[in-house]
Amino acid sequence: PSRSRRHALVPRWAMALQIVVLLSLTGRSARAATDHVVVDEYFLQCLDGAQGTFVELNADGPGQTYDARIGLRILNASGGVTLDIPSLFADRAGQPWPEGQRFLLAGAGFAELTGVTPDAVLSVLPSTSAGGVLLYLRALSGTTITVLERVEYSRGSPTHALPPVGKSAVRSPEGLHVVAPVPTPTTAAGQRATAPGCFASLVRQLVLQEFALDCALGDASGGFVEITNQGSSQFLDADLQLRAQDHAGTILFDIPLGFGSRAGSPWNSGRSWLVGGPALHTTQGAGVDALWPAPLDRTGGTITLHGDDGAGGELVIDRASYGTAELPVPPAGMSLTRIAGGGGYTATLPPTPVAFSGLVLTADQCVRPTTLRVRELLTACSLSPEAPSYIELTAVGLGARRDPTLAIEVRDRTGTVQGELPLDFGPLTNTTWPASTSWLLASTVPPACHPTVRCRSRSIACRAACASCGVPAARAPRPSTCTA
After folding, report:
1. Fewer Cβ within 10 Å of end Cβ, the chain: N or C?
2. Residues near 414 by Cβ (< 8 Å), separated by ≥ 6?
3. E strands along 177-334, which residues?
4. Above 80 in pLDDT, residue 13?
5. Where are the strands (E) in 323-434, listed by range?
C-alpha cells in the first residue's frame, strides 16, 4: 500500500533532518523510471542506545524501476560524504519497482535487534544531530549527478524533522518529513521490523484529565478539555487528535491537537495540553493551546483522544462519556476531573484548566456570582480590648461551595491591606455550602472578657464568644453588651 495512509495525518511543518535525493536528467526514459523514488522514513537513535538506525526508500508513484545507476550517500553536518554506495540496486537492476514498495537500509546490528534482515546494510550511519542522506542517479557517462530532491536535517529546520530518540520521521505529500507516532521500517518483501526497547511504543499514557462544558451562567466559550501526560518518553506527536461527539453520537469536531512548530518536542510527565473555547486566558492574556471549533454538548456526549496505530488505522488513547448514569453532566460552572488512580471523574469547583505553559486559565464569563455574605462582624467586646473578634459568613442562596480558594482580605480605615485570611474548610473542602448556614471565623487569641460581662446580644456568635470566658452569666452583677 502507498504511504499516503500516513500522509493524511501529518501537518505542513516539522523540526529538522537532511536527506538529499539526486537523479540524473540524462535521458527521458531514465527520468520517467525513477522520478518517484524518494526517502520515505528515517530513524536515527534507539531509546535504549541499541543500533537500530535505518533509512527507508519508497516508490511513491507508478512506473518506477530499480535502476543500477542509483546510488546513496551519507552526509555529515557540513555536507561532506561519509559513505557512498554507487550502485545500490545492482542485484535488482532493470526490475520494476511497484508503487508503494519499500526498500530498507539499516545498520549492521539491525537484523540481530529486530529479527528482520534489511535489503541493504549501511556501514556508516547518519548523524544523530545533523547531516543527510543523498539518493542519486549517475549519468550514463562521466561523473555527473543531478539532485532530484534535497531534504536537509538539523535542529530547528522548519521543513524536515530531526526525530526524537525512539521516533522516526516520515515523508508528507509536500516533501516534508514529520515525526511519526511509531517507527515502521519495512523491507521490499513487505516484512515490518519491530524493536520494543528501541522504538517508541504506541502505548501513550495520555489522559483526559479535566473537562468543562460551560461557565456558571451557561456560557460555552469557557469550556475546555485538558489532556495530561502521566508517563515518560512521551512527545508532542503530530498524529494526536481530539474528537467530540454529542449525546446522539454526531461528531461535533475531530481536530489535531495543533502542536505547530513544537511537534516532536518532549512532553514531560504531569504537563498538560489545553483545548478549549476563546474566553479562557491567563492573567497575561494568553489563550488555550488549541482552540476548538465548537463547544461540547451540555446534555451529554463522548470525548475521544486518538492517534495513528502505525498502520493507517485509529488508536484510541483515552475516552470519556458523560451525561450517563455513571458520569452525570456536571452543574454549570463546574468541571469533571479525573480521580487519581483511574477511578473515574468527580465534579470540581472551581475548574482549573492548565495550559502547556503550566499556568491556570480563567474566563471572565465563568466567574460565578457569589451567594456568600458577611452576616455579622465583631471587632471587640465593649469592656475589653482583648476580647475575641470574629466574622460570620453565610450563604444567602443555592449553589455555594466551600471553595478552598476563598479568602478574606482585611483592610484598615484608609483602605490599606492588612492581611489575607484563607478559609480553611478542612474535611468539608469542596462540599456544598447549604443556604442559610454560616461559617464562623474567630481570633485565636484567648478571650480576656471582663469577669462581670453578660452578653445581651441576640447573636449566637456573640454569645459564644462571651461564654468562652467561662464566667456564668448569673454571676455578672452589672450586665453589659458585646457590641458588633
Report:
1. N
2. none
3. 177-179, 206-212, 224-229, 241-246, 251-256, 272-276, 290-291, 301-308, 314-322
4. no
5. 335-338, 345-348, 372-378, 390-395, 407-411, 417-422
Which positions ≥6 away from 343 have C-beta within 8 Å?
none
Distance (Å, rounded) from C-alpha 244 to C-alpha 302?
6
The pLDDT assigned to 23 comes to 36
Tens digit of each residue's pLDDT (9 = 90 or more) over 114-159: 999 999 999 999 998 889 999 998 888 878 888 777 888 888 788 8
Task: Flag whether the pTM goes above 0.70.
Answer: no
What cell numbers appear for 220 in the block? 460555552
What residues does 210 pair with on adjacent strands?
Answer: 226, 337
Cell numbers at 145, concatenated: 549527478
Contact call for residues 180 and 169 (beta carbons, < 8 A): yes
Q: Where are the beta strands (DSSP E) in 78-229?
A: 81-85, 96-97, 102-107, 120-122, 130-137, 147-154, 168-171, 177-179, 206-212, 224-229
- Residue 444, pLDDT score: 52
If phi over 0 gives left and psi between -120 and 50 gives alpha, with beta otherwise, what is residue 217?
Answer: alpha
What gap in Å lies between CA 131 and CA 74, rounded to an integer?
Answer: 8
Identify residue 81 by its one-letter amino acid code.
Answer: V
The C-alpha cell at 433 is 455550602
290 touches 257 (CB < 8 A): yes
In angstroms, the CA 242 to CA 256 distance is 6
- Residue 20 near residue 134, CB atoms below 8 Å: yes
Q: Where are the alpha helices (DSSP H) in 51-129?
A: 110-114
